[in-house]
From TrEMBL:
UniProt keyword annotation of Transferase present: yes
EC code: 2.8.2.-
Keywords per UniProt: Transferase
Name assigned to this protein: Sulfotransferase
Keyword Transferase: yes
Lineage of producing organism: Eukaryota, Viridiplantae, Streptophyta, Embryophyta, Tracheophyta
UniProt GO molecular function: sulfotransferase activity
InterPro entries documented for this protein: P-loop_NTPase, Sulfotransferase_dom
A Pfam family: Sulfotransfer_1
Ranges of residues in domain Sulfotransferase: 69-332
């Protein structure tokens, strides 16, 4: 990838200018493929569908992000449980500074998990400078990303926690989310579903996203932890212990006996977090895909497994299952 110097606060002036910048930073020298996406035109940026603004931001992160060896990256395809993973990881990693037992003043009670663990590519980094936001965070940093593995900044070698989710629940969650955050979002669900099955969804295809991190996990299991939302729902305490070991802050026997693991699970549960004023009524300074301030409540809907049963016809479910099965065949990954 060519190293391109961009002004971090440069404002886009037009599609042609964007296109030439994107081309100079992607591995493609041909015009980027475009397609009518969920709420705007999507571009296929090095095999990954996203809107133009996201592509600009990803490009900038790839060129400018300064990784540290002791960073831990929490990576997800959107709507796979990012908020939950951020909360759990923050609570576990910081539990000596911020005890979770009798956690009257815990930061998770007054701040969104997305403010405690920022994304590297969001808010869009060609508009909101990257360095100022991320360089100031003391080590070891917990950072989030929706970027697929093959688009991560080339020098990233840190540990990664990846969380995936049943794709049928992901498409439902994504559609509801877009309805909340994008003004004038009007795509009907059937159309969104067809785009998703076709691989055209934000940071899609979802199977490529899963496989990129899965293959890295198979190659380097000690560096890339691969988790599943449904398994985490079934056994949150077991996953909290596993996460703590991976983050190199395992629970001591005394902590286990004192119920600290269960306290982390409780503090980070959907029921607890979604009812806090900060997550139910605060409009964050953070902005979303259309640059409007977002309510923190958009990250909390139902927090259930198999909610897709309330929305997908049997035919739709079979169609998506078949597409996923075909794409994951031979990888060893099952969902
Ligand atoms: P993001 O990828 O846009 O950052 P993400 O947190 O992955 O958001 O997506 C939100 C989903 O996680 C929602 O799922 P749903 O639409 O199926 O309900 C949300 O309810 C769920 N979620 C948020 N917090 C929690 C939590 N603490 N435990 C379990 N699920 C959660």
């Amino acid at each position: 990838m060519a190293q391109v110097e961009l002004e971090a606060d440069s404002v886009l002036t037009g599609e042609e200018e964007d296109e030439s910048l994107l081309l100079s930073m992607s591995s493609s020298s041909n015009k980027l493929q475009t397609r009518e996406g969920w709420w705007t035109t999507f571009v296929l940026y090095d095999g990954c569908w996203m809107d133009r603004q996201a592509a600009m931001s990803v490009s900038l992160v790839r060129a400018q992000f300064v990784p540290r060896d002791d960073d831990v990256l929490l990576a997800t395809y959107p709507k796979c449980g990012t908020t939950w993973l951020k909360a759990l990881s923050f609570a576990i990693a910081n539990r000596h500074r911020h005890p979770v037992v009798s956690a009257g003043h815990h930061p998770l009670l007054t701040q969104s998990p997305h403010d405690l663990v920022p994304f590297i590519e969001l808010p869009f980094r060609h508009i909101h400078p990257l360095a100022a936001a991320l360089d100031a965070i003391p080590s070891p940093r917990l950072l989030g990303t929706h970027m697929p593995h093959h688009l991560l900044p080339p020098r990233i070698g840190c540990r990664i926690v990846y969380l995936c989710r049943e794709p049928k629940d992901v498409v439902i969650s994504t559609w509801h989310f877009m309805n909340k955050v994008i003004e004038g979002f009007s795509i009907d669900f059937d159309k969104a579903f067809e785009l998703f099955v076709d691989g055209c969804s934000p940071f899609g295809p979802i199977w490529n996203h899963y496989l990129g991190y899965w293959n890295k996990h198979v190659e380097e299991p000690d560096r890339v932890l691969f988790l599943k939302y449904d398994d985490m729902m079934a056994d949150p305490a077991g996953h909290v212990k596993k996460l703590a070991e991976f983050l190199r802050v395992p629970f001591t026997d005394d902590e286990v006996d004192a119920g600290v693991v269960e306290e982390v699970v409780r503090l980070c549960s959907f029921e607890k977090l979604s009812r806090l004023p900060v997550n139910s009524s605060v409009v964050a300074g953070r902005v979303g895909v259309d640059e409007r301030p977002m309510k923190n409540s958009v990250f909390f809907r139902k927090g259930k497994v198999r909610d897709w049963k309330n929305y997908l016809t049997e035919e739709m479910a079979k169609k998506l299952d078949a597409a996923i099965e075909e794409k994951l065949k031979g990888s060893g990954l099952t969902l």
